[in-house]
Design goal:
By secondary structure, the protein is α/β, with parallel strands linked by helices. It is built from 9 helices and 14 strands.
Amino acid sequence: MVLAVASRRCPPDLPTARPHFHPAMPFLDHPIEISEEAGMRNLHFGSDWIQGAMRIRRPFALELAYTREMMACLLLRPEKSWPRRVMLIGLGAGSLAKFIYRNLPETRMSIVEIDARIVPMAQQYFSLPVDPQRMKLVIADGSEYVQQARGRYDAIFVDGFGADGRAGVLDSAAFYQACRARLGQDGLLICNLLGRSRGFHASVERIRKAFEQRAIVFPSLDSGNAVAFGAAGEPVEVTLDEMRERARQLKTETGLDLRPTISRLQKAQTLPGGCLKL
């Protein structure tokens, strides 16, 4: 069942926190659709491909496996005070933003979305909170914003795809280098990639080069998504036992279950000596 459609000329007129607009924004002409089935609400960009999802009875949970995998950054930087300052490039249905908002109350977010139509739809249909103190919404090209942003970030999440399933400049060497320059001493880049795409291995190499080989790609999920992490500043060195303990804490405190992620890392033999180092 289709609940709503936003055309290129008729974005929804909904009450919302006023986002910051950057000049010279591109004109996006793909339709945005919201469907609902079996208790799930999904976001589409003019195709059946799901760009975001929410279980209606659990609006703050991470329903798509790759979004849970992206939050595995909490295993790599297990300090409870991390992260304090986050940039999210690509809002979509707001899954990551909502999880961070609910479960990491000390974290402040800058959320960069290229399509102005997405923000009000995420707020009305996907329960995105309105809180300008903790969530700064910016309508801008993520590749340009990351170069112009001030200060340093503890984490930069990149999950930006167009209606054609391509990341465009968000998968360029210059973009990954700009992300590396914007990260602080405990910084991590967390990037959603399409593991079955032709350019997957080239994407991984660009990330590794930008982060001077301090990067890892987790094994591809059943969906084909593969999450890459790049580390800046302080070394990442976490043992298997430490990851298991942190995963146990996260399951208790937030409901996020990262134990399957740890099992997949073990099976793929990506933890030599029982330790993940970046």
